[in-house]
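Suppose a colleague, Dr. K., hands you the sequence of a protein chain of 271 amino acids and asks what its three-dimensional shape might be. Before reaching for any lab equipment, you can write down a predicted structure in C-alpha cell form. Begin with the sequence itself:
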Amino acid sequence: MMRGAYIDISMGQIHYRYWRSQPTHRRPLLCLHPAPFSGLFFTTAMPLLGHDREVFAPDYPGYGGSTEPDEQPTIEDYAQCMLEFIDALGIDTTVDVIGFHTGCLVGAEMLRLRPVSINTLVMVDVPYFDSDAQESLRSRAAAPLNLSPQADSIGPVWESDVGKKAAAIGMTRAVELFSEHVRGYKRAHQAFHAAFTYPCVERFAGLSGPLAIIATQSMLLDATRAAAQAVPAAHFVEALDITQAVFEEGAEAITGKIDAAIRALEEDHHE
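The predicted structure, expressed as C-alpha cells, is then:
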C-alpha cells in the first residue's frame, strides 16, 4: 500500500513515499529520482519493485515536499541527505539502491561515502559526462525556469512534460509530473546544476562494490555505455527494447531487469 510521510534530518524535513508489502523477505529498496521531479516519479514502478520488500522514494531537498536548502546543493549534499534519511528511518540492515538519471550520481556518491550501508546499487541511464560536456549541458539545463504572469511562459515546460509524453504515459500522469516540475520552479534547476558540476570521471573511477548499470534506448545511451567502461567491475545490461517512458510504459520491463540485476549481484557477492 502506498503511503506518504515526513522525517527529520539535519537540513530539515524529507518528504517520502513508501510501498510496504507483507511479508517482506528482502532488504529495503531506495529509489533516487531524476531532476526535476520528486519521489512521485517512481509511484508507477514501486508496486512492481515492492512485491516482497519495502520501497522508499524520498524527495531531494528542494523538490517535492522536502525542505528547501539554503544554498545550491551538490551531489554530495544530496547523497549525505539520503544517507541521513536511511539512518532516520531506523533501518537496521543494508539497503538496495536504484537511481535514474540524476539519481545515478546520488547513488554513486552514497556508495562512495558509505559503502557499508549499500547492499547493491543499480544505475539506470547514467548522465556520465566529462567536464567539457558538463559545461555545455549546464548552460542549457541548469537555469531557473523563466516563468512570468503571462500564460505562454509555461508553454515550453508544458510541451516538454505533457505534450511530448502524454501519448506514452497518459494525460493524468503527465500532468502529475508536470505539477512536480513547476511546484518549486525557482529551484527546479538545482539538481541539474549539481549533476553537471559533479566530477563523474574522477568519482566513477573509484567506484567499487556490487553495482549494476542498465542502459535503455535513450538519449543517455552513449553516456551510459561510457559509464560502464569507466567501471569495468559493474554488471552491465543493455535494455534496448525499452525505448521511452522507462518507469511508466516500460515499468514492467525495467523493474524486471532491475530485480534480475540485484539478484545477480547478490549471487556474485556471495560466491
